[in-house]
Amino acid sequence: MIRPHTHDVWELYLQVAGPPTCWTVADDTWHVPSRGMLAVPPGVPHAMAASSTAPYHFYFAALAPADIVPPGDLHPLWRQRQPFVITDAGSMVTPFELFLREVTTYQPLRTAGLTYTAALLVIEASRLADGRQPGRHLAMHPAIATAKRLIENHLAEGLTVDDLAAAVHLSPAHFAELFRAEIGETPGRYRTRLRVERARLLLSETDLPITTIATDLGYSSSQHFATVFRHGTGTTPTRYRHKITGRAHHSSVQGL
After folding, report:
1. How many CB atoms lie within 10 A of CB 202?
2. Cα 206 from Cα 251, distance rounded (Å)
C-alpha cells in the first residue's frame, strides 16, 4: 500500500506483475494494469487507492527529466506536468532494471551509470507516451524484431513458436528458421536466457521470495525454476542470492 505523498520531481511507477491497481492522483482516479506505468508530476498528491490481496510488484523512480535530457529533446508531456498512464510499458522493464542496478550496487563509474540509465528511462517513457514502439536494429528482419520484442515484453506468458509466428504472419517453420538465423538461438532458448538474466537481477536487488520470482517469470513451480536457473548459472537461486547479497554487504562495510 502506497500512502498519499508528493515529490518535487516526477515519479514513475512501473507495475511489473500482479493484478491491475487503482491510484488516486490529485482528484482523479487512474487504473494501472500489469506491465503498465503511471507517471506523476512534481507536487501532485498521489496514493494507491486500494491494495490487492494478490501479490504485485513495482519498480519506481523519482526523476527530473528536464535535468536529464537536452531541452531540445525534452518531450512536451514533461513540461505540461499532467499525470499519465502507459498501459503497455513492458519495454520499460529493462531500463528500470539497469537503473536500479546502478542505484543499489557499488560499481565503478557509478555517477555516469546513474546518469545514463536515468536518461534511458526518460527516453523510453517519452517514446511510449508518443505512441512509438521500441526500435529495432536496422540489420534485423522486421518480423524477428517484432517477435523478439514480444518475448521480452511477455516473458511470463511463454509464447510458443506458433504464437509468435502467427503474430508476425509467418509459417512456424519459416519463422523458427529465420529467428535462429537472426538471433543465433531458438525462441525458447532466447526466452529462457532472458528469464535467467532477469532472475539474477531480482535475486540480487530485491527481497522477493524465490517462489514469487518463479511465478512472475512464468514457471509453474519453484522447483522447475531452480532447475532452469541452475542449468543456466551453475548454482541454485538460494545460493546465488546468498553469494551476491553477502558480497554486497561486505562491500558496503568496507566503504564505511
Report:
1. 22
2. 17
Q: Which residue's entry shows cell 565503478?
A: 108
Query: Beta-carbon neighbour count of residue 139 at 10 Å?
Result: 7
130 near 84, Cβ under 8 Å? no
**Consecutive sets of 10 residues in the chain, 256 residues long: mean pLDDT of each?**
86 87 89 89 89 73 91 86 88 87 82 90 88 49 88 89 94 91 88 90 87 92 94 91 63 34
Whole-angstrom distance, CA of residue 102 vs CA of residue 125:
19
Of 161, 168, 167, 163, residue with least CA distance to 142: 168
pTM of the model: 0.57
- At 112, the amino acid letter reads A
Kindly give, in sequence order, each residue whose CB lies less than 8 Å from that of residue 200, ignoring residues fewer than 6 positions away: 233, 240
